[in-house]
Each structure stands twice: as structure tokens, then as C-alpha cells.
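Sample pair:
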Amino acid sequence: MIRAYKFLMRPTVGQSIALGEMVRDHCSLYNGALQERRDAYRHVSKTTVRYGTQSAQLKEIRAFDPERQGRWSFSSQQATLRRLDKAFAAFFRRAKAGEKPGYPRFRGIGRFDTVDFPKDGDGCRWDSTPHDPVTRIRFQGVGHVKVHQHRTVVGKVKTVSVKREGKRWYAVLTAEQTQPEPLPHTGSVAGIDLGIANILADSNGGFVANPRHGRKAAAKLQEAQQALSRCKRGSKRRRKAMRRVATLHRKVRRQRLDHAHKTAHGLVREHDFIAHEDLKIRNMNKAPAPKFAPEVPDRFLHNGAASKAGLNRSIADAGWGVFLAILNAKAESAGREVIAVDPRNTSRRCPECGHTAKENRPTQDKFHCQACGHNAHADTVGALNVLRAGLVRREAQPA
């Protein structure tokens, strides 16, 4: 299995400048390759330029510009060209499927923050010596950079990436490991229902409160973004204000990740089998379609967009997608089983008699069956139905 590690780097002032120049030159290479593809399609009878053609030109580019392109790793530049090729492949896939394509865009230096090295030892080298308190990583054109290795890397390092987040630099490693020993069996199964008021409700009657990190930081973010909007473009004050906004967003993201890791870790340790709703979060976050006034041209009717925007912010703040991704990764490492089930009517079906009706859920948190009179918390009822559907699906799967 492949596991990723993310470590904070502590470069010197000169190394920070060199890392910034490396990212800048790879961004320039990305934009130049994108421009070549656009020009070839527009002006040369719709010719398609592919990765192989652009990769073959790297030697000439490095010889023509040795100060900017020739000083960096050849493999990392190939990885940048593959990154553009993947963007075009995704564009054509979405266009073919009838989705909103999203043509690849040029990247400003503030929107290009990662440089990939496909192989450890080719343009970079991870140097982690046992019992050595100082860990270093070497990059071609930069030198040996100190790394704050807060945990041991298990397995053979395969790839290395440099990532910039604000004023900080991180090294992201992927290591190939053997399958770890599964956790001991507990004999417990659980279904979970994701929500807004409580981020999680399980089939045993437990709840995990929604910390609402984004809402708690909303006032500071609003103040910082207003200060940013008042700054002149290109000024030092604007750059400082941008860093302030990015720092606040980064703090919220890290708090959300920390909460998701701890919640998922607890579920994986306590249960052998976990069922959850197969939520289409992207569809749930869509804005409502506009309603045209039939009698008055260029006028629109009320469509609930303001209230839907508030719900969308709450869904994004809950971080369901991040939590489910972490839960599946931890379950795979621990030898647990996770199954996604159809979420339709899970909070409207009575777990006692099976009666399904909209009237069974009179309020957001109350469930009252109109057939048998069963009363319970609506999220707990949803988690029970999710668990039953997951167990049925597990039994139906071929061995």
C-alpha cells in the first residue's frame, strides 16, 4: 500500500529564495506548454500537441535558457508537463460526458504551489538517518534543506513533492509499505448519518457535535478580507493582507482535518463494519436554478438562493467529503469494512414497522412514525436504516 507523509521544511533565507524560483520556473514551463497547445489547435489546423512532443522539447528548452530552466531537475519538469496533460485529459473526459468541461487555465505564481519529483534520487533525495535528530532533503539547484520529521517514515520512499503554503514550505512523500496488521475484532457494527447540527450520528444513539470551525472564524475572515479589498494591487500592504487571509483559511482547514482524523480514528477502533450514506456532495452544493417571471421580461422570481447559500456554507464547513475520505483510508489500513448505501428515505423509514412517509419526520431532529407511533431522534433513525441497508448489501456481495 502507498502512504503519504507531510513534513514542514525549515529552509534558510537563500534556500527559500531558491525554492520560490523553482516554483516560478515550473509555473512558467506549465504556462508555456499550455500556450503551445492553444496555438497549435487554433492556428495549425486544429493540431493536438501531446505530452510526448512537449517532453522531447525539454532538452532544447534547457539549453536555450540554462539560468531558469536548465538548473532544475529534468524529471520534475517532465512531471509538470504530465500535470498539464492530465488537466487536458480531464477536460476531454468531462466534455465527452456532457459535464461542464472547464478548459485548463494559465496559472499565476500565486496559484502554482507544487513541484513534483517522480522518483526519490532523481533530482531530489530523502536523507533520513536513524538516530539522527536532523533530517534533510536535497533538491537539485537548492541544496540540503532541514526537515522537521515529526514521525518515522515507514517503507521505501517513492515520490517527493515540494509544496508552498503561504510562507511555509512542506515536503510531501509517498512511501510503499506492506499491508499493516489489522486491528483486533470487536464484533461491533455501526451505521452513521451525516448532518449539519451534529456532524455525525451513529446507530447506537451516539452523536458527534459539529465544531463549525468556519463559522467561528467567519468574523476574523470577514475583517481580513475587507482589509484586503482596501489595499492597492501590487503593494506590500496587499501582499501582507493576502498572507493574513491565507493564514486564517489554513487554520480552519487544519482544524477541520484534525477533527475528521480523530472522529474517523474512533469509529475505526470501535467497529468492524461501518455503513454510511453515499452522498453526492457536489450536487447538494449546487445553486438553485433561476426562475423567470412569465409576464415581465428580464425579471426573476424568488428561488430561495439566499437560504440555499447558507446551507451550502454549512455543508462545506462540515467537511463531509474530507471525513469520508479519511474514514475509508483508515479503515483500509485497519482491516475494517466500510460500505456506502443509497441515502434515499433513510430518515423517513420507521425502523420498527418499515412505514415510509414524509410525515414521519415533522421536524429536523424529531421522528414520529404515523403508523406505529415510534418516537426517536431523526438522525439516529437514519443511522439505523443506513446500517441495515449496509448489512444487506454486504450479504449480497459475492464472496
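Residues 2-176 form one domain.
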